[in-house]
Amino acid sequence: MEKNQHHYSVIMAGGIGTRFWPMSTQKSPKQFHDVLGTGKTLLQQTFERMKLISDTSRIFVITSMEFTDLVFEQLPDLPVENCIAEPMGMNTAACVAYASFKISQLDENAQLLICPSDHLILNESLFAKNVQKAMSESLKKEGLYTLGIEPTRPDTGYGYIQYIPSSKQVKEVKTFTEKPDFSLAKQFIESGDFLWNSGMFIWKVSDILEALKRYLPDMYRAFENIKSHMNTESEIEEVSKIYPTLQKTSIDKGVLEKCEKVFVLPARFGWSDLGTWLSLFEQSDRDPQRNAVVGEEVKLYNAKGNMIHIEGDRVAVIDGLENFIVVNTDDALLICPLKNDQEVKNYVTNLRLSKADKYI
Amino acid sequence: MEKNQHHYSVIMAGGIGTRFWPMSTQKSPKQFHDVLGTGKTLLQQTFERMKLISDTSRIFVITSMEFTDLVFEQLPDLPVENCIAEPMGMNTAACVAYASFKISQLDENAQLLICPSDHLILNESLFAKNVQKAMSESLKKEGLYTLGIEPTRPDTGYGYIQYIPSSKQVKEVKTFTEKPDFSLAKQFIESGDFLWNSGMFIWKVSDILEALKRYLPDMYRAFENIKSHMNTESEIEEVSKIYPTLQKTSIDKGVLEKCEKVFVLPARFGWSDLGTWLSLFEQSDRDPQRNAVVGEEVKLYNAKGNMIHIEGDRVAVIDGLENFIVVNTDDALLICPLKNDQEVKNYVTNLRLSKADKYI
């Protein structure tokens, strides 16, 4: 099937989360790992998924300069010019602005799907249908479109989107809320008009540029001034000059929360942001003793309900452990209770404080 | 102090125990590791201890051919000709016979201390005094002398030596017994005339050769036939011919248990054979939460009573673990309850059965 020539996908692959340490490190973050043991890294899975939306020539990956080698290594099909290298990590607003200006110079009628590189989506064809729906909607009605996940539990690890109930498939957004505490999350679920913020956006490039101009005018102007350099040899040099001056904010905070024309499409395609070891555990295949195991040679005795991730050509013998996370890489070993999965980022902070940076 | 020119020490360093896996492996057994985190391997500690008994020129190390490089690397002071390479591991009787024939060719009046390379001795000067006492006793009275450790608990992991009570410091041995069960071990302790078999022996070389001739005549004859090659260029070749034909037995079983002239010197110099992770744990320095930790960078949270051994330049973060063994090497990870320390050899057997030999 010939794909719509104005449909572009932008994969954001510059993140360096610490909640998946020690598998995910500053030098090799989570998106570059086969975290589910499927034989493909999360970035590779995302790239394959984007092929359902856009022709390969219209899939872009935006990442930090230092990760471009990893991107080319993992995505041999990606056109070289479609790897956008940020001079430094500046959060998602700058990332979206850069990709939008660049693509608008190629095609002012472009429609963009912006998505993270490290999420799990189980039902990919339903995902593609939802994206197509939002794409066609965004042509009819000016605005910023997002995919909201129908929540299945009062998760305190996600941001929530409240929509105005209506009979239409695509709803008008009422409010964005930060990660709630448990009782608030329960209220959100019970009310029925809250969705999880998936961080996946769909919009016409002209609409997002208009919104950037309005809500992040400094950032807009900085890119506007150098837009003629986009897709030329001087692009990197010019972008490097403005990048350090840009506001470090997320596209949610910087634009979506302020914008009045935001729409959400409630979706249920089996989604996880794989944000912590526990969420990965929940999405992994498990053995009869409920152990989720990734590793060449892992021998378990009296082990139940563990998340075990052993990298490299290494044997592991684990006896008598219950409901633990065990991660072993060449540089690090992590053993902690599954229920402490939110502590992982604190372990990393403490390593940083004790000047053990080289391990993180 | 000029040491007695007939005092020789023989360090047996050919063992490949599996109870310390994965630190101890077939390619690099326990004696070549700094198991206590002191900065010295057990072999190095033993070699230093032998210098209290013999001049360095009269300290010998007997090991398998494949470990000689490790020996030279760890003991740069050891004279090259004092490293005796067995063509294959054949248990301690062959090992003692080989070293005894070799040394008797150098000095027929030699007195030998034979000892394992992988034991811990805390009070080294008391150890040296005990050895000197046994050496002088063995000059006065023909026989095989052994150091017996005064037991501090009904340990079922050791062999026991029963002696005939007397007022003398050096006692006559009544029986050797294998590892007892717990109730028998308790009886041994209560009776007061049982000692732990330390596997450390002292004798005149002429006495042990006499005993070998009587109790292991085939082995004796095999070495007798090639003794003129000892300490010559043809030694290795000739030894390699006879070695496969030798009886594979321990010096305890093959000689001491049968011999009538065996003596034991009860000793209390702070000894452990460091036979399992638990015994190592008991001999290690511990932090206020009773964790024994060896490793470059180990961060503990809510961890109590663990034996933690992290090799290499690797960070470990361990949270919520109590009374566990955690060992991490380049090739393997072991996590098991401390109370299961006797299971370690079974884990290794199972790895062998599942053809995961390369990890053991």
Explained architecture:
The structure is a homodimer of 360-residue chains. Chain A has 360 residues and is an alpha/beta fold. The first copy, chain A, is built from 11 helices and 17 strands. In chain A, helix 3 crosses helix 6, helix 3 runs parallel beside helix 7 (217-226) and helix 6 packs across helix 7. The longest helix of chain A is centred in the middle third of the chain and has 17 residues, at 124-140. The model of chain A has no long low-confidence stretch (mean pLDDT 94). Strand 17 of chain A pairs parallel with strand 15 (315-319) of chain B, so a sheet runs across the interface.
What is the fold's blueprint, element by element?
Two copies of one chain form a homodimer.
Chain A: E1 7-12, H1 42-50, E2 59-64, H2 68-74, E3 83-86, H3 91-106, E4 111-116, E5 120-121, H4 124-140, E6 144-149, E7 160-164, E8 171-177, H5 182-191, E9 194-204, H6 205-215, H7 217-226, H8 235-242, H9 251-256, E10 262-267, E11 271-272, H10 277-283, E12 292-294, E13 297-301, E14 307-310, E15 315-319, E16 324-328, E17 332-337, H11 344-353
Parallel strand pairs in A: 1-2, 1-4, 2-3, 6-10, 12-14, 13-15, 14-16
Antiparallel strand pairs in A: 4-9, 5-11, 6-9, 7-8, 7-9, 8-10, 16-17
Treating each run of at least 4 consecutive H or I residues as one helix, how many helices of chain A?
11
Radius of gyration of chain A: 21 Å
User: Quick one: biggest sheet of chain A?
Assistant: 5 strands, mixed, barrel
Contiguous low-pLDDT stretches of chain A (5 residues minimum) are none
Q: What portion of the residues of chain A fall into strands of 2 or more residues?
A: 15-25%
Overall, the morphology of chain A is globular
**Largest interface, C-beta within 8 A:** A-B, 33 and 33 residues
Q: Which structural category do the helix and sheet elements of chain A fall into? A: alpha/beta
